[in-house]
Design goal:
By secondary structure, the chain is of the alpha/beta class. The protein has two domains: 26-132, Translation factors (Elongation Factor Tu (Ef-tu), domain 3); 134-277, Rossmann fold, CATH 3.40.50.80. 22% of the residues lie in helices and 29% in strands. It contains nine helices and twelve strands. The strands form two sheets. A six-stranded antiparallel β-sheet has the order 4-3-6-1-2-5. Strand 8 (179-186), helix 7 and strand 9 (210-214) form a beta-alpha-beta unit. The longest helix has 13 residues, at 253-265. It is globular, with a radius of gyration of 19 Å. Bound molecules: flavin-adenine dinucleotide (FAD) and NADP nicotinamide-adenine-dinucleotide phosphate. NADP nicotinamide-adenine-dinucleotide phosphate (NAP) binds next to strand 8, helix 8 and helix 9.
Length: 282
């Protein structure tokens, strides 16, 4: 979209819907091969896939998997598939260099995709379509013209995956002097992951705070960025400025809606808040 110096990135229009997103259902499907799994926490599994079918994506986007449905009573689900979406947790640069991408899956009890991914072994092949989504960063050229005061990236659980995908872009932005603030909401300390990756953004001259909001555990180390409660509690302490700051929200749909409503109530224009809700499939 055209960009003028009078526009503030925090209040820019959402990018126009691309032909790719318009033809959501008619996107080509390609195969991906699982090459590695790694536990990030007790209930979060990172899966790494090799593919030559996904040529590019923008950091922050997601892909949709077609997964074989687990057998039910009477085996009446034979041959059926379910469709589930996952944010890409690795960078576009990694796809370009190695032909791989990663997703981080929070395994839910009795979840159909959860069961499928838990059982998957290296060598398993899945049909995937995408990329989709608009939770993407403004390009550096746009930010060089008029930068937002702060870029505030908020996620719960695997809702942090898009920000991990953005790390090379965020590093570049930080080097240009852009202030960045990350908020991660989890139940307990042991549910945190990708923390070292986010800490790699920071240096003494230009710290990039990572606030870890623990909803079900007493905090022991406030100096390390621990906070009690929900991400909303911490967000309210950040003295955010409507029209100046640009906020991203991703993950738990109730959190996203709650933060969005609060920010709009604070005077944020809707287009200054970008969001991706991990809505459940049923
Ligand atoms: C755009 C988009 C991006 C997404 N990205 C990610 C991602 O990067 N990582 C990720 O883990 N998920 C992501 N999700 C959610 C994901 O698509 C699935 O919904 C999720 O993995 C559960 O699927 P399932 O088949 O295992 O559970 P289902 O079989 O659909 O559900 C089983 C049961 O678990 C409940 N349930 C499902 N999800 C949750 C949950 N999170 N918490 C509590 N209960 C739940 C359901 O209500 C149901 O009762 C995303 C969703 C969208 C729309
Ligand atoms: N140890 C475990 O057994 C364990 C650990 C982690 C996840 N899980 C399971 O994994 C699945 C997905 O979990 P997840 O951690 O990725 O995502 P999640 O369920 O969305 O929770 C992530 C964080 O978001 C918080 N949250 C929930 N509702 C919110 C709201 N309205 N506003 C703001 N924050 C809110 C949660 O707090 P609260 O839940 O405290 O409200 C938690 O701190 C769930 O089925 C979960 O039960 C299990």
């Amino acid at each position: 979209m055209p960009w003028t110096p009078t526009q503030v990135p925090g209040v820019q229009e959402q990018p126009p819907v691309t032909p790719v997103e318009k033809s959501y259902m008619s996107q080509p499907t390609f195969d991906v091969e699982l090459i590695r799994t790694q536990w990030l926490t007790d209930s979060t599994l990172e899966l790494t896939f090799q593919t030559d079918g996904l040529s590019a994506f923008e950091a922050g986007q997601f892909v949709s998997f077609f997964l074989p449905l687990e057998k039910e009573n009477g085996d009446n689900t034979k041959g059926k598939t379910i469709r589930r979406s996952y944010s890409v947790a690795s960078s576009p640069e990694e796809l370009k260099a190695k032909g791989v991408f990663q997703i981080a899956v929070a395994l839910v009890p009795n979840g159909q995709a959860s069961a499928c991914f838990s059982a998957a072994q290296p060598g398993s092949v899945f049909p995937v379509t995408g990329p989709f989504g608009q939770l993407t960063l403004p390009v550096p050229e746009q930010l060089q013209l008029v930068a937002p005061d702060r870029l505030v990236l908020v996620g719960t659980g695997t809702g942090m995956a898009p920000y991990r995908s953005m790390l090379p872009q965020l590093q570049q932005l930080r080097q240009q002097g852009q202030k960045i603030h990350l908020l991660m909401g989890v139940r307990q300390r042991c549910d945190l992951f990708y923390v070292d990756d986010f800490h790699s953004l920071t240096n003494e001259e230009q710290p990039v705070p990572l606030d870890c909001c623990l909803s079900r555990e007493e905090i022991t180390d406030p100096a390390a960025g621990e906070h009690s409660g929900y991400v909303q509690d911490r967000l309210a302490e950040l003295s955010l400025l409507p029209g100046r700051d640009l906020v991203y929200l991703c993950g738990n749909p109730y959190m996203v809606e709650d933060c969005f409503t609060w920010l709009v109530g604070k005077g944020f224009e809707k287009r200054s808040v970008r969001k991706e809700k991990y809505v459940l499939s049923r």
